[in-house]
Amino acid sequence: MVMHTPLGLLALLLLASAPISTRAADCGSTASPKLDWQECSKKNLMLQGSDLEGANLFSTDFSLTDLSGGNFKSANLEKATLVRASLEGSHAEGANFAKVEAYRASFANIAAEGASFAGAELQRANFAGARLSGASFEKAELGRADFDKAVLTGVKFSFANLSRADLSNATIEGPAMFDRAFMFLTRIEGLDLSAAAGLEQAQIELACGDTSTKLPPGLSAPATWPCPAEHE
Q1: Residues 71-87 pLDDT 10s
Q2: CA separation, residue 220 to residues 124, 194, 227 (Å)
Q3: Which CATH superfamily is domain 54-211 in?
Q4: CA nearest neighbour of 34 among 20, 23, 21
Q5: Can you tell me the distance from the alpha carbon of 175 to that of 43, in angstroms, rounded to the nearest whole number?
Q6: How far is residue 199's CA from residue 181's CA, in Å, rounded to a whole number?
Q7: Torsions phi, psi of 14, nearest 5?
Q8: In this predicted model, what pLDDT tens digit does every residue of 85-115 receive, in sequence order?
Q9: Nearest CA to 46 among 66, 16, 26, 73?
Q10: Which residue in 76, 103, 63, 70 sits closest to 89, CA to CA?
Q11: pLDDT, tens digit, for every residue of 176-205?
Q12: Rounded to 5 degrees, what angle do the CA atoms 57, 61, 62 make?
C-alpha cells in the first residue's frame, strides 16, 4: 500500500532529520570567557581588562580597540583584525593569533608564552617587554617589529620576514629557530644567539650586529658590522 505524506508533514520531517547548525555568534553580548564573537565588528572600542579566556574571536575586527590588560588565554583570534589595537599588558598564554592582521598593534608587556602568531601580519608591531617563550612566528611578517627587552627563548621565527625588526635588547636564554628567516637589516646587536638553530652565514651577512653579538659555532661576524644608524 502506498502512503501519501502531506507536504507540510514531509517538510517537518526533513527539518527534524537535518543536522543542527552551529549557533550564530552573539555579537551583542558583553565580554566574558568562552563567548562567541566570531566575525563580529568590535572596532574602536574601550575594552580594557576584558576576560575573554577561551573565547572564539575568529576573524573578529578589533581595529583601533583598546584591549589592554585583558585575558586571552587559549582564545582563538585566528584571522582577527588588530590593526592599531592595543593588547598591552594582557595575558594570552596559548592563544591563537595565526594569520591576524596587526599592523602597528601593541603587544607590549604581553604574556603570550606558547602562543601562535604563525602567518600573522605584524609589521611595526610593538612587542617591547613581551614574554614570548615558546611562541611561534613561523611565516609571520615582522618588518620593523620592536622586540625591545622581550623574552624570546624557544621562539620559532622559521620562514619569518624579520626585515628591519629590532631584536637587539631581547633575551634568548636557550634555543630559538631562525631557519629560512629573512633578516635584512634585522637588529641583533648584543643578542645572544649562541644556541639559536637554523641560522646561516648568509642571514648574518644581511643582519646588523656588533662585537657583543654572540653567534652559533661556525658563524662569524661580517666586516660590515656594526651597521650605521637607521633614520626612518
Answers
A1: 999 999 999 999 999 99
A2: 29, 11, 15
A3: E3 ubiquitin-protein ligase SopA (2.160.20.80)
A4: 23
A5: 38
A6: 8
A7: -65, -40
A8: 999 999 999 999 999 999 999 999 999 999 9
A9: 66
A10: 70
A11: 999 999 999 999 999 999 999 999 999 999
A12: 90
Which cell numbers in the block locate residue 127?
Answer: 612587542
- The single residue listed with the C-alpha cell 587559549 is 74
Domain ranges for the chain: 54-211
